[in-house]
Amino acid sequence: MPLDYLLPRVYWTLLTAAFVFGCCVGSYLNVVIYRLPLGLSTHDPKRSFCPLCKYPIPFYHNIPVLSWLLLRGKCANCKSPISFRYPVVELITGLLFAGAMLRYGYDWRVFAGFIFLALCVAGSYIDIDHQILPHEITWGGAAVGLVASTLIPNPIHDFEGTWWQNLLFSLGSAAMGYGVIWIVIQLGKLAFGKLKMTFEKPETWSVSQPDGSPDILLKVGELQEVWSEIFSRPSDRLLIKATTAQLGDTNYGPCLLKIGEDTVTVIPEGGTPQTIPLENIPQMHGTCTGVEQPREAMGLGDANWMACVGAFLGWKAVLFAIFSGSIIGAVLSLLMILIGRREWAGRIPFGPYLAAGAAIWLFRGPEFIDWYLNLTKGSIGG
Fold it and tell me: Which DSSP string do the residues of 66-83 spell out, in sequence order?
């Protein structure tokens, strides 16, 4: 039921409730954003803790937005600064939830909107921090989207049929979302080839898996890449021109390392090549003067994310999110360059822009398309 049909007092009560609920969810999303990429449980320990002193935060110091303001952005125990981002995440989530209540009103669809918007917030911040979109957010979200499309009589996508028709539509839209980005990735690899980096002085490099993390990380100097983002095809190879290399307990001098998804081939200068299964090497590190890796326009995490968007919102939302996300990304990058913050433009991955485009579609996407088409017809007619 749209909120317009309700009495003013009930109208504002529901909006306020949605905002407060969203702020509370945002507090939990802060936990997800911090713990999930590190492989930590989001529910053990149950209480939030200070990242620096590990002090468990009591409930009266964990009131969304207000606690941060009352404590002046500092931990009550060690007085260390608490990032301004924590109340920002809570406030943004609250505002998004209030917007979803305005969009869908007193209807089951609003809960699907809440879930999707929460995924957008968590996924965006994790992507910004770690350049990854965890499967728990993308594929887990896609699964929830399929269930929501099946159980809710009138889902938040623009198709309405029987439960099994809704499920097929949602499943097909998810497949389309993944497929479109997958094609872009493959075309990007063909167009951009490989990323080659050379260094005047040897840079440190390492391949390791942090404790509790499901991801293997490649680090070269200050750069960091997730293993699955490098090897999206069986033929992909990572080349490291090493000055020193330690593979497990074995040390090598100058050599070329050809690293595949499952094996490492060591080619010493003037020596015999040796291929080692990657599973036999607990970690690798050393120094290098050059790195060559497969390069792609986007990551598989973006493809997984668009599968989630399709499952919740349908195939039209997929196309809208890609188009509008590209525009948002281009505009913000240009603004950052104009204000002298060119380095910021390169730090923001495409995932948050896709999430912004999908959120716009959830709130007013179909209406925006209708407005644009009417505007185009008017211009042509004039």
Answer: HHHHHTTTB-TTT--B--
pTM: 0.77
pLDDT digits (tens, 9 = 90+) for 235-267: 778 899 999 999 988 999 999 999 887 889 999
Q: Could you give the CA distance from residue 28 to residue 23 in angstroms, rounded to a whole number?
A: 9
Give the closest residue to 199 by CA, choosing from 223, 226, 216, 217: 223
Q: Reduced to 3 states, what is the DSSP secondary structure of residue 238? A: strand
Reference 278, options 256, 259, 292, 293; nearest CA is 259
pLDDT exceeds cutoff 70 at 230: yes
Domain ranges of the chain: 1-107, 111-190+300-382, 194-294
Decide: 349 and 131 in contact? Cβ < 8 Å: yes
Distance CA 63, CA 68 (A): 8
- Residue 364 CA to residue 14 CA, distance in Å, equals 20
Rounded to a whole number of angstroms, the CA Rg of the chain reads: 24
The answer to which of 46-60, 224-238, 321-335 has the lowest mean pLDDT is 224-238
Beta partners for residue 81, in sequence order: 74
CA–CA dist 247, 280 (Å, integer): 9
Residue 223 phi, psi dihedral angles, 5° rounding: -85, 150
Whole-angstrom distance, CA of residue 95 vs CA of residue 109: 17
Write the CA distances from 350 to 86, 139, 153, integer angstroms: 22, 18, 33
First-to-last CA distance in the chain? 39
